[in-house]
Design a protein that fits this description.
By secondary structure, this protein is α+β, with helices and mostly antiparallel strands. Helices cover 19% and strands 38% of the residues. The protein folds into 2 domains: 72 residues, Ribosomal protein L6 (Outer Surface Protein A, domain 3, Alpha-Beta Complex), CATH 3.90.930.12; 82 residues, Outer Surface Protein A, domain 3. Strand 5 and strand 6 form a beta hairpin.
Length: 179
């Protein structure tokens, strides 16, 4: 039995969960999230909990058990508390600013880089170098953070670029330090 898959999912106060066939819909203060659960997994709502069980013991079904439970739990947590990722800009002249809903980045290129977040994602900028990405969908928040980081990933000689908060970049010695 999957250790993660067999755990019941508590439904917190203020969140409504509806199950229609294989579709689980969670409504909460931060919005609505929908998860489509595969046919191999059975979804039941008992008391104030959601329980996911397997239809059979095939290898593929066992692999989907924990995944499905985690996806449903993330949807419920997302509409209740939300998810966030933080990015840091490191480098001389590297800065970020919000222009309406568009994120404007100065990353050492000859032109500014503009990034428009998808619907449901909010971006805030603190002190011109710290970017916070918030949303109710964990995957979308991570995708947006990765897309912004990909505009100028941290380079290994000076460590300049966009990095996740607390990310450690191992620096390489240049030509002079090779001896």
């Amino acid at each position: 039995m999957s250790r993660i898959g067999k755990l019941p999912i508590e439904i917190p106060q203020g969140v409504e969960v509806a199950i229609e066939g294989q579709t689980v819909t969670a409504k909460g203060p931060l919005g609505t999230e929908t998860v489509e659960v595969r046919e191999e997994i059975i979804v039941k709502k008992e008391d104030n909990k959601i329980i996911l069980t397997r239809r059979d013991e095939e290898r593929k079904t066992r692999a989907l058990h924990g995944l499905s439970r985690t996806l449903v739990a993330n949807a419920i947590n997302g509409v209740k508390t939300g998810f966030e990722k933080k990015l840091e800009l490191q480098g001389v002249g590297y800065r970020a600013a919000m222009q309406g809903t568009i994120l404007n980045l100065q990353l050492g290129y000859s032109h500014p880089v503009n990034f428009e977040p998808p619907k449901g994602i909010t971006i805030t900028v603190d002190q011109n170098t710290n970017i916070t990405i918030k949303g109710s969908n964990k995957q979308t928040v991570g995708d947006v953070a990765a897309a912004i980081r990909s505009k100028r990933p941290p380079e290994v000689y000076k460590g300049k670029g966009v990095r996740y908060e607390g990310e450690y970049v191992r620096k390489k010695a240049g030509k002079a330090g090779k001896k």
